[in-house]
Amino acid sequence: MSTSKIEIDGVGKSYVSGKRRDRKVVNALQGVNLTIAPGGFVSLLGPSGCGKTTLLKCLDGLIPITDGEIRVGGKAIKGPGRDRAFVFQDFRLFPWRSVLGNVCFPLETTVSSRAERETTARKYIEMVGLSAFEKHHPHELSGGMQQRVGIARALAVNPDILLMDEPFGALDAQTRELMQVELLRIWELTGKTVVFVTHSVDEAIFLSQRIAVFSARPGRISAEFDVPFGYPRNEHTVRGDGRFVELRHEIWGLLKGDQNSSFSE
Q1: Other CB atoms within 10 Å distance of the CB of residue 58
Q2: CB of 67 within 8 A of CB of 118?
Q3: What is the CB neighbour count within 10 angstroms for residue 247?
Q4: Exposure of 11 by Cβ count < 10 A (0-12 exposed, 13-18 middle, 19+ buried)?
Q5: What distance in Å separates the CA atoms of residue 83 and residue 167, rounded to the nearest whole number?
Q6: Edge-to-edge, what's the strand order for the sheet holding 6-17?
Q7: CA of 77: how far to CAs of 26, 63, 83, 191, 197, in Å?
Q8: Closest Cα partner for 222 from 66, 57, 52?
Q9: Torsion angle in degrees (nearest 10) through CA of 181, 184, 186, 192
Q10: Which candidate, 219, 214, 209, places its Cα nearest to that of 251?
Q11: ω into residue 232 within 30 of 0, thus cis?
């Protein structure tokens, strides 16, 4: 019996694009292999268009794979499931709903009692530090606060796995760093398995236990790196550590070897 939470085994994904006469097959992913332990935090790095987000959507069951198999808890996934929740870069909150209403939303198809839904939602609103804002609407919140709502909404269904697609990419630098610290606090508190897509090498190192680096399309995992820091992590101590600098340099050397990379330091 597998001890891995997630097993990605020889996964490929192809699309057909263009009109009938000009149809082309686009290989987004090819031969992707990755295992993730229960409660692990793994980041996916790679150039734009290399298939990181595609893989995340395949993991969520939102799009089918072309080759290989993805297993969660030893079982091949057939589609979306409540054991997985997706956190997007754009917050995707309902503007007409309050914070409480947004976090309650994913519970409405499974929990009939409004009181029970609100009790569950308030638990996670408190966890992300927004108890004082549960009656506020998205336009009344900062970007960082809106993303906290998105995380609370994902947590409300109590998934085993959080799939996070550049969740802090739209935030300013200061807020982004604050949210990284907040995410680690929540992860340590909940023990969720996290798969995190980012374009930031520094962010990946600070957050992750392991980093998988993708090649340009068709996306393959060209290297994996273990991050040599335990938890909890102090941002100033970690970022100032010589091992952080060395790992950053090694990953950047790999990425810069790909002429199609589109990263910013």
Answers
A1: 24
A2: no
A3: 20
A4: buried
A5: 19
A6: 24-36, 6-17, 67-72, 75-76
A7: 23, 11, 11, 21, 20
A8: 52
A9: 160
A10: 214
A11: yes
Residue 175 and residue 142 in contact, taking contact as beta carbons nearer than 8 Å: yes
pTM: 0.91
Helix residue ranges, H only, the chain: 52-60, 99-104, 114-127, 143-156, 173-190, 201-207, 235-239, 242-256
Q: What is the pLDDT along the chain (265 residues), one digit of tens a residue?
A: 458 899 999 999 998 877 777 778 888 899 999 999 999 999 999 988 888 999 999 999 999 999 999 999 999 998 999 999 999 888 889 999 999 999 999 999 888 899 999 999 999 999 999 999 999 999 999 999 999 999 999 999 999 999 999 999 888 889 999 999 999 999 999 999 999 999 999 999 999 999 999 998 888 999 999 999 999 998 889 999 999 999 999 999 988 876 544 444 4
Contacts of 61 (CB under 8 A, 6+ apart): 77, 78, 79, 80, 81, 84
Distances from the Cα of 187 to the Cα of 61, 190, 207, 226, 242, angstroms: 22, 5, 10, 18, 25
Integer angstrom CA distances of residue 261 from 60, 152, 162: 26, 33, 26
- The structure tokens 């997985």 sit at 84
Cα distance between residue 174 and residue 264, in whole Å: 16
